[in-house]
Amino acid sequence: MYLRTLIIIITNIYFLVSYVNANEDLISYDIIDYSIPYSLTNIEGNIKNGREVALSRQGNCLACHKVPMYDDIFQGNIGPSLAGIGNRYTIAELRLRLVNPYVLNPDTIMPAFYKVRGLKRVDKKYTEKSILSAQEIEDVISWLATLKD
């Protein structure tokens, strides 16, 4: 009985430490009215860097979305077009859509770009690190907000 209790305690400590270590670099945020109203970094997003991240393999927006004013012929059609997204959503709404879209639609195939636990359809070796940093999230949001047409 003692050995079983000890194993349970050690296992729980291991998972608790793993959880804390996996999330130690993530900045906490509050979801209010289906949005994250406050910046993750308190630093204004860089539009140029946001565009680079979104259109690179890192952000990989083109895998699912059509991006206006971009000449790449290999654009996605699974997700909605990003044309006019800056008119459809506020900065706070865009932030939630990037950070954790599962809040809005639990069945979405869009990845959570700033989450490390409870991910869907993600290989275990990728679950301990967010896809984008907090600043990259803010940068991509700044770029998306410019897409008004």
What share of residues are in beta strands?
under 5%
Largest sheet: none
CATH superfamily name? Cytochrome c-like domain
- In the predicted model, the low-confidence regions spanning at least 5 consecutive residues are 4-24
- Quantity of strands, as a count: 0
Order of helices and strands: HHHHH
Helix content: 25-40%
From the 3D structure, determine the CATH topology.
Cytochrome Bc1 Complex, Chain D, domain 2
The number of helical segments is 5
Oligomer: single chain
Tally of separate domains: 1
The CATH architecture would be Orthogonal Bundle
In round numbers, the mean pLDDT is 83
Shape: globular
Q: What is the straight-line distance between the termini?
A: 67 Å
Radius of gyration, rounded?
Answer: 18 Å
Coarse structural class: mainly alpha
State the name of the first-level CATH class: Mainly Alpha
Could you describe the 3D structure shown?
The protein has 149 residues and is an all-alpha fold. The protein has a single domain (28-145), classed as Cytochrome Bc1 Complex, Chain D, domain 2. It is built from five helices and no strands. It has helices at residues 2-23, 47-55, 85-88, 91-99, 134-145. Helix 2 (47-55) crosses helix 5 (134-145) and helix 4 crosses helix 5. It starts with a helix and ends with a helix. The model is unreliable at 4-24 (pLDDT under 50).
Question: In a few lines, what is going on in this structure?
Answer:
By secondary structure, the chain is an all-alpha fold.
